[in-house]
């Protein structure tokens, strides 16, 4: 389902798409920093805004793709498939993230992207991406900045997966997503944060089996560090969690990630 057509009965084109000048996610998305006077011109590059269901494949590895996307709302996963057929989740995409960009825009996709929850996406034709970047240096710099930060968080996950025990890996993932969601939506620790991940997605992100994820999660709960209820995650002791995971908040700080 890499391409959206009018015959696609599970992907719906928004009849009243959000205008870029009124977009609540622009401050953390690709067009951050673009003067408001230029937003109408930049919006001409957007093909449409789409609503998709959960578990919808935006890109498949090895296929060409018609669009790149800003994730306006929802969660998605960026993954690669290894030789034994298992999936390795590289990172989780949240509101404001840009999906589908790679060094060679004409090449087949080197990774896959699947929605985890129902999502709203702003679609930009891949064929016009180079034109858009050449026309506006602010957007080109913002894209380079965003991809450098995506790389930084992927490198941190690689270190966790390769060198840290299971409990530390899980604690780091929880803290990363918790902080990113706090930056997006505000609130305090008593509210918890949205957490739609199943044990399968957690395991695919940190290199553990479902059984190992379940056992490790129980350990964190018994230690009084986390609570999960109603698809929400509660960090009960930030200081102890950060010490356990060796988590540096500056890696994902507002000034350094979003």
The percent range for strand residues is: 15-25%
Distance between the termini: 28 Å
Instruction: Report the CATH topology name of the largest domain.
Output: Jelly Rolls
- Give the total of beta strands: 12
Radius of gyration: 19 Å
Q: Mind telling me which CATH architecture of the largest domain this is?
A: Sandwich
Q: Work out the helix count.
A: 7
Structural class: alpha+beta
Outline the biggest β-sheet. 5 strands, antiparallel
Write down the overall mean pLDDT: 86
**Coarse shape:** globular
Helix content: 25-40%
Strand order in the largest sheet = 1-2-9-4-7
Our count of domains comes out at 2
> What is the N-to-C order of secondary-structure elements (H for helix, E for strand)?
EHEEEEEEEEHHHEHHEEH
What is the level 1 CATH name of the largest domain? Mainly Beta
Going by CATH, the homologous superfamily of the largest domain would be Jelly Rolls
- Flag low-confidence runs: 1-8, 254-258
Written overview of the protein:
The protein folds into 2 domains: 12-142, Jelly Rolls; 164-252, Arc Repressor Mutant, subunit A. The protein is built from 7 helices and 12 strands. Residues 1-8 and 254-258 have low confidence and may be disordered. Strand 5 (76-81) and strand 6 form a beta hairpin. Helix 4 (166-185) crosses helix 6 (210-222), helix 4 (166-185) packs across helix 7 (238-245) and helix 5 (199-206) packs across helix 6. The two termini are 28 Å apart. It has 258 residues and is α+β, with helices and mostly antiparallel strands.
């Amino acid at each position: 389902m890499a391409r959206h057509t009018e015959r696609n009965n599970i992907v719906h084109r928004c009849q009243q798409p959000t205008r870029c000048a009124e977009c609540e996610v622009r401050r953390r998305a690709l067009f951050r920093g673009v003067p408001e006077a230029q937003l109408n011109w930049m919006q001409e590059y957007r093909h449409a805004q789409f609503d998709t269901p959960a578990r919808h494949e935006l890109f498949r590895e090895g296929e060409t793709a018609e669009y790149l996307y800003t994730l306006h709302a929802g969660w998605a996963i960026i993954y690669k498939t290894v030789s034994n057929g298992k999936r390795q989740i590289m990172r989780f995409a949240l509101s404001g993230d840009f999906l589908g960009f790679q060094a060679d825009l004409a090449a087949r996709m080197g990774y896959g992207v699947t929605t985890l929850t129902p999502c709203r996406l702003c679609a930009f034709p891949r064929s016009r991406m180079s034109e858009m970047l050449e026309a506006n240096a602010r957007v080109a710099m913002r894209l380079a900045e965003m991809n450098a930060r995506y790389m930084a968080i992927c490198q941190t996950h690689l270190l966790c997966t390769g060198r840290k025990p299971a409990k530390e890996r899980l604690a780091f993932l929880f803290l990363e997503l918790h902080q990113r969601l706090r930056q997006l939506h505000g609130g305090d620790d008593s509210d918890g944060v949205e957490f739609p991940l199943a044990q399968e997605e957690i395991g695919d992100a940190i290199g553990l089996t479902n059984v190992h994820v379940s056992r490790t999660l129980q350990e964190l709960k018994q230690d009084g560090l986390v609570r999960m209820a109603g698809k929400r995650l509660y960090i009960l002791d930030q200081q102890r969690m950060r010490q356990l995971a060796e988590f540096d908040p500056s890696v994902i700080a507002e000034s350094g990630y979003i």
